[in-house]
Amino acid sequence: MAESALALREHPQIIELLSVLEQNNLSQQKEEVQALVGYIDGMEEKLSQMMDEMKAMRLEVEKLHDKGIGARCAQLVETAEGKIRQGKTMLSTASTNLVSAAGRIAGTVKEKGRDALRHAVQALRIPAGKLDVIRDELHQAGGHMKSAGRALAGKEPLAAQELEADKGALARLRGLFASCGKTFSQMGRGAGRLAEKAGGEKS
């Protein structure tokens, strides 16, 4: 990861919580925490990569000769960047909450025992409803970007020379939009799986 920020799995509080869960033979709860931590770390990494891809997209947009298409593409890139920033904010909040909760749980387990630990880990889960919201947001963003890529395929500048010059840039933009759209959809599916797991085990 490009950022200097610590990955969630490297936080001392998370490491300590996983160790406490292992010592108490709560392997299912340990797996749940690892799944959540892995999901958040993975998404943060993907969103950082996508921000880099957006920078590449901006450079491609600047190369377009057709100003109408250029303006439309710039708008799409801006919308996508907004979605990515929104995702990063949601993850940052989830990450901070998880670290502070992990610290509290690991700290109080010695006096309250194994049952309290099990209940505390259940409370750690991102509520299924919140995961559904994240999943829907990501699916919408993914669909939006895939549509944008398809829309670009049908918009060709008229002048022959400009057409040739813009074709390569448009093809690269289409590819970038499609790849970002796919990533958003994958992250949405990941949120869906975590929500199902959290929801399914309550009954």
Q: Descriptors for this entry?
A:
5 helices, mainly alpha, 86% helix, 203 residues, 0% strand
Protein model, in words:
- By secondary structure, the chain is mainly α.
- It has helices at residues 12-23, 27-63, 67-124, 128-154, 160-200.
- The two termini are 38 Å apart.
- Sheet-strand content, in percent, reads under 5%
Low-confidence stretches: none
User: How far is the N terminus from the C terminus?
Assistant: 38 Å
Helix content: over 70%
Helical segment count = 5
**How does the overall form come out from the CA principal axes?**
elongated
For the biggest sheet, the summary is: none
Quick take:
By secondary structure, this protein is an all-alpha fold. Helix content is 86%, strand content 0%. It is built from five helices and no strands.
Which SSEs are present, and which pair or pack?
Elements: H1 12-23, H2 27-63, H3 67-124, H4 128-154, H5 160-200
